[in-house]
Amino acid sequence: MDVLIVTGMSGAGKSNAVNALEDIGYFCADNIPPNLLHSFLEEIKKSNEAEKVAVVIDMRAGLSFSNLINVLDETKKTDYNFKTLFIDADDDVLIRRYKETRRLHPLVAKDQTLSVTEAINLERMYLQPTKNIADIVIDSTNLSVTQLRNRIKDTFLSRPENSFVMHFISFGYKYGIPRDCDFVFDLRGLVNPYYVPELRDKTGLDKEVRDFVMQDENSQKMKRMLEEFILFILPLSKLEGKSQIVIGFGCTGGHHRSVTFAEIFNDFLDSLGYRTTVHHRDCLK
Q1: Which has the closest alpha carbon to 213: 197, 195, 196, 190?
Q2: What is the average pLDDT across 3-19?
């Protein structure tokens, strides 16, 4: 039985992740105390209710959450196929979401003396050990609800012939580096379409921009070197047991060069038979 532990920061999007998992056939259970995980899974197994189970365990469990890592270590000794998904987001985004929804943070609900900021800081401290051992970390800071759900579906949709996923993200350095990237490549030294008037308002999704970027010798050299590097790290990542790699391509504004390279490498890995996704974080800003 495939078992996915879903955890992460409160307000980061775990509920939306679970909705997406249900859409692709997972039996989902929310707010299970860590100490009940093993018995819960045994009941599911006995009843033959599901082949894929997603269980949300987070700070709503209170201090018992601190026992999650020990429980996972014990449960992983069984014949379940375990993975852990951690959903994260920037503190400022989490604070804004709580203000917009007017919901109480779980730690504030337990201790009314805490501010939302203090609760988020405390929660992050409690959750950091779990994040450190997570198989997959998704940062929802710059993802819409639809984009988060699509990311979840692309990552966990069952394809036994190739369960490894390559995620490509384009971004602009002026808006910050995506936190969930395993590797980040800086393309700001390449020829910039922004300074060509007829290309300025276009993006790397347009053929004219891609052609302009890739006709430059440095862009071609960068592409060859990155192809060699990515093909080198892929088998190593699989050997390590990773189920995904997130690669970020950055340029100044996230419109031209980064989008071009994200599209090119998404197509390249797709042509080799890998499952791939591409997300242009800042393309429309």
Answers
A1: 190
A2: 92
Picking from 88, 136, 95, the residue whose alpha carbon sits closest to that of residue 114 is 95
Specify the DSSP class assigned to residue 253: S
The token duo for 164 is 């490894």
Structural element, H or E, at residue 6: strand 2-8
Residue recorded with tokens 């995620």: 167
What tokens appear for 77 in the block?
Answer: 């000794």
**52 contacts: CB under 8 Å, gap ≥ 6:** 1, 2, 4, 25, 26, 27, 158
- How far apart CA 86 and CA 244 sit, in angstroms, is 13
Instruction: Examine the pLDDT at 113 and tell me if it is beyond 80.
Output: yes
More confident residue, 58 or 257: 257
Structure tokens at 247: 């690669």
Buried b (16+ CB within 10 A) or exposed e, 56-94: bbbbbbeeebeebeebbeebeeeebeebbbbbbbbeebb
pLDDT in tens, 143-187: 888 889 888 888 887 554 456 789 999 999 999 999 889 999 999
Nearest of 9, 271, 275 to residue 137 by alpha carbon = 9
Cα 257–260–264 angle (5° rounding)? 140
| 3 state SS of 285 | coil
CA–CA dist 136, 278 (Å, integer): 16
Judge whether 27 and 37 are in contact, CB under 8 Å. Answer: no
Q: How many CB atoms lie within 10 A of CB 225?
A: 11
Supply the mean pLDDT for the chain: 88
* Structure-derived torsion over alpha carbons of residues 28, 33, 38, 44, reported in degrees to the nearest 10: -30
pLDDT digits 0-9 by tens, 23-58: 888 999 998 888 888 888 888 888 877 789 999 988
